[in-house]
Design goal:
Blueprint lengths: L11 H6 L26 E8 L10 E5 L12 E3 L5 E7 L2 E7 L22 E3 L5 E3 L2 E2 L5 E9 L8 E8 L2 E12 L4 E3 L5 E6 L14 E3 L6 E8 L4
Parallel strand pairs: 1-7, 1-8, 9-15
Antiparallel strand pairs: 1-4, 2-3, 2-5, 5-6, 9-12, 10-11, 10-13, 13-14
Length: 236
């Protein structure tokens, strides 16, 4: 699940989903709205511990369970939070194969930017009628890098409320490996430890002069934060 997705919807929806963090690790799958599910038909359970890059339990981290694709379009993915011991638990899952991924924007994890697991670790569990429960230890990959762009109108100095950032690899500058459209007040998550070419745009404005053409070279370490002051020239 590397960053080869185009994000059509605003990532602020992800931020809104993590606005309230419970004290323990109940699954939000029970809170499916307007689906009228019979939860007795969903008896799968996945539980385990999340280990960070330092080998310690990861506290208060949001996770999603990617599994069978036969749920109605628009259904929220099963979600869970780690507790103070780094433990998590998903309940009321339908049977099938699952991958548990860190999906916590503020902590620097997104399936659109980071991988689910670092290489060499198990990535999937199978829930079946004869064994509907499974334990999976989750090892966190490196965090994404944070790019904060202060975007303003070059003529008026007014803040531009939205931003579009696309990025590609220098060896293949014609192919986007990621594209983000979101509020400019939020940082953009970028793949870490990669040489990237970024383009900063917004409808109604010319592309940022430093990224126009080949793109702005950038490389950030996991968890690193970079702030850019960017002015865009209106088209008219």
């Amino acid at each position: 699940m590397k960053a080869r997705f185009t994000i059509a919807a605003l990532l602020v929806l992800v931020a809104a989903a993590v606005a309230q963090q419970p004290n323990e690790y109940p699954s939000i799958w029970q809170e499916q709205q307007a689906l009228d599910l019979n939860l007795s038909d969903y008896n799968g359970v996945i539980h385990g511990t999340v280990i960070d890059q330092d080998g310690k339990p990861a506290k208060g981290l949001r996770l999603t369970a990617w599994g069978p694709g036969n749920r109605p379009l628009g259904t929220r993915l099963p979600e869970a939070w780690t507790n103070q011991a780094g433990e998590y638990r998903f309940e009321h899952l339908e049977l099938g194969s699952y991958t548990v991924c860190p999906e916590d924007f503020d902590a620097g994890y997104s399936v659109f930017t980071t991988v689910c697991y670092p290489p060499g670790h198990p990535t999937e569990v199978e829930l079946a009628a004869e064994h509907p429960q499974a334990e999976l230890r989750v090892y966190l990959p490196p965090k994404a890098a944070f790019l904060q762009v202060h975007l303003t109108n070059r003529r008026t100095g007014a803040v531009i409320p939205g931003i579009m950032v696309s990025y590609m690899l220098p060896e293949n500058p014609a192919e986007k490996i990621g594209e983000v459209s979101q509020f400019s007040s939020k940082p953009v998550l970028l793949p870490p430890d990669k040489d990237l070419l970024i383009h900063v745009t917004y409808p109604g404005f010319k592309e940022w002069k430093e990224s126009a053409g080949k793109g702005k070279p950038i490389r950030l370490a996991p968890g690193e934060r970079l702030t850019l002051d960017v002015q865009l020239e209106p088209l008219n």
